[in-house]
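Ticket reopened. Same input as before:
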Amino acid sequence: MFTSNPFAALSASIPTVYMQGYIVVMFLLVMGGTILDMLHKKSAQYFFENAKKAKKSAKRSVGGGEKVAIATSVLVKEVLTSGEFDNPRRRLSHLLTMWGTIIFIVTTAIMIFSPSSTSTLLPQLWHIGALMLAVGGYWFWFFIRADVAAEGLSSFRLERADLFILSLLATSTFALIWSFTGGGLTVFFALFILSSTVLFGGVYWSKFAHMFFKPAAAFQKRVIMADGGRENLPPDYDLTDPEVQRKFPDVPTYMGKNPPNMGLCIKAERANHY
Amino acid sequence: MPTFVYMTRCDGCGECVDICPSDIMHIDKKLRRAYNIEPSMCWECYSCVKACPHQAIDVRGYADFAPLGHSVRVIRDEEKGTIAWRIKFRNGKKDMELLAPITTKPWGSATPDLAKVPAPSKEMRDSQLLFNEPKYIRMDDGGLHTLQSNGLEIKKGVQY
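Engineering reply: fixed in the latest deploy. New output:
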């Protein structure tokens, strides 16, 4: 089951060129939706205006090499490992959903564009990707969402902003059911195509576009920290630094010259309002 | 000085919702990011600003209190046990940095073990002194300090 390519069996009913055309149309819809979303929310405009404003309070300029190093750390921490999330449950759920989606979409495209491939690895990855997506997504939907976990609202309360996660979950769920029920032209295939069309066609109304502007925002945040502007935030003091101790004598007086790690305090507890 | 949230920084974790004593920090039902539902009811305690793990909450000063365009930002570092403030004026010329300890012992290590403390006697219960006074307030050199015992009296009017 896991090793069979469901699109290979489907090519008997639907010509491969139609499937390839569908992938291209979905790709164009994502691009178009992202551009429209950026124009509507003015997120790119905000990004550049904010960067300009932040530059005014910069204490030094960040060089090209340093920017490359910052971009690399953004790629490793924020993009590839979802390091922006402080909450480990949310981070794990996001990692499962994100990597599941990437594996699922990429393997779908490869299997459709190389129909003669007999690799068993690709179908396995396709199923694993869909499962990862479903596990991370349902975990998020039923347990981790802020309005469910912190606001105490019902898991079944729907908003337009839910279009992304729900269509994503529907796509992976119907894809798995379609594959496990033998593939072919079935009602599950219709639901799979319907949900994936909503997912990729609804970028303008959903938060799909966040995957494009979030890395840019993370990059800008790190540049602001590196150039000394720090968005007007106070510096990250080293309490053992004699210069810091001289400037703020209360610290060595009350805490000693080498203060211990005081522990997590409020951060030891997870936010759980209800 | 009501609070506001930088939406690009907030990840909707709910720490501010938890801590707000006025219960006005809520999660937006559509965007799932925190916001202040009633700025006029904000009592400027800075709890949410300090609790936010992403420094996504800032405070907007009223014009009669602080010059427009100023910035008062804070980072409370629980692990270091310090609080750092940075106050910057609109023209950028005044840029003050402050750092102060908020604990001298690791969190939770100085919690009194009340189960081991002997129960108060009837005499202690009937006394005007609170639990463990005068020991805890270090007034064991005599009775309570009052305005009268210190030769002081309350003056009428606003005192500066």
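Chain A touches chain B through 48 residues (CB under 8 Å). The mean pLDDT of chain A is 89. Please confirm and we'll close it.
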